[in-house]
């Protein structure tokens, strides 16, 4: 009984740390909350993460969504909050909220930041932690052409890493 309580305590602690990590990465807590509300509305509107994945990334015939996780994608402009989709044929990321850019002509454009990596183009998946703060964990996806994508701020880091490894190993 004590072992079960300790295990439950570790899971709760890991989940709380995941939420704190996720919120701390955001430059603005109010923007993060707005993004999450937008995402929940989309989940309800489309009927779940599988249908959102289908609509955003045009699944191939036979492609099956294994898992989805809230996280951040590291970019040169800073971390972008969104959903990481892990399927049998691809790993894909879509931002929670549209990103606003200005064209060379001064026009504003809004688009969701999207990345899609076919599983057959993935070389490996690495897990890393911050040396000075081991509770901060990262997942690196390296492609066959040695380009890397860094994901962080997972609500459930262990689950995401497990499914990413499974996706790579099924290829």
- Count of all domains: 1
Question: What is the N-to-C order of secondary-structure elements (H for helix, E for strand)?
Answer: HHHEEEEEEEEEH
User: Outline, from the CA principal axes?
Assistant: globular
Please tally the helical runs, counting DSSP H or I stretches of 4 or more residues: 4
Largest sheet: 7 strands, antiparallel
The CATH superfamily label reads: Pleckstrin-homology domain (PH domain)/Phosphotyrosine-binding domain (PTB)
Q: What is the architecture at the second tier of CATH?
A: Roll
| Helix/strand/pairing category | alpha+beta
Beta-strand content bin: 25-35%
- Rounded to the nearest angstrom, the radius of gyration is 17 Å
Tally of DSSP β-strands: 9
> Roughly what percent helix?
25-40%
What is the typical, i.e. mean, pLDDT?
Answer: 79
Distance between the termini: 41 Å
Return the CATH topology.
PH-domain like
Q: pLDDT under 50 segments (min length 5)?
A: none
**Strands across the major sheet, in which order?**
6-3-2-1-9-8-7
Tell me the quaternary state: single chain
Characterize the structure shown.
It is a single chain. The chain is built from 4 helices and 9 strands; from the N terminus they run αααβββββββββα. It has one domain (1-167): Roll (PH-domain like). Strand 4 and strand 5 form a beta hairpin. The mean pLDDT is 79. It has a 7-stranded antiparallel β-sheet with strand order 6-3-2-1-9-8-7, sandwiched between helices. The protein has a two-stranded antiparallel sheet with strand order 4-5. With 171 residues, the protein is α+β, with helices and mostly antiparallel strands. It comes from Momordica charantia. Residues 51-129 form the GRAM domain.
């Amino acid at each position: 009984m004590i072992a079960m309580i300790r295990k439950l305590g570790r899971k709760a602690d890991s989940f709380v740390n995941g939420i704190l990590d996720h919120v701390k990465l955001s430059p603005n807590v109010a923007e993060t909350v707005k993004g999450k509300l937008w995402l929940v509305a989309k989940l309800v509107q489309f009927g779940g993460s599988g249908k959102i994945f289908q609509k955003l990334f045009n699944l191939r015939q036979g492609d099956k969504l294994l898992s989805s996780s809230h996280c951040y994608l590291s970019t040169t402009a800073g971390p972008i909050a969104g959903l990481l989709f892990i399927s049998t044929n691809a790993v894909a990321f879509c931002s929670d909220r549209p990103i606003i850019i200005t064209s060379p002509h001064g026009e504003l454009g809004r688009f969701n930041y999207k990345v899609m990596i076919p599983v057959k183009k993935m070389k490996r998946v690495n897990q890393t932690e911050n040396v000075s703060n081991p509770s901060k964990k990262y997942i690196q996806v390296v492609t066959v052409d040695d380009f890397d994508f860094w994901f962080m701020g997972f609500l459930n880091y262990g689950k995401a890493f497990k499914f990413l490894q499974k996706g790579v190993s099924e290829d």
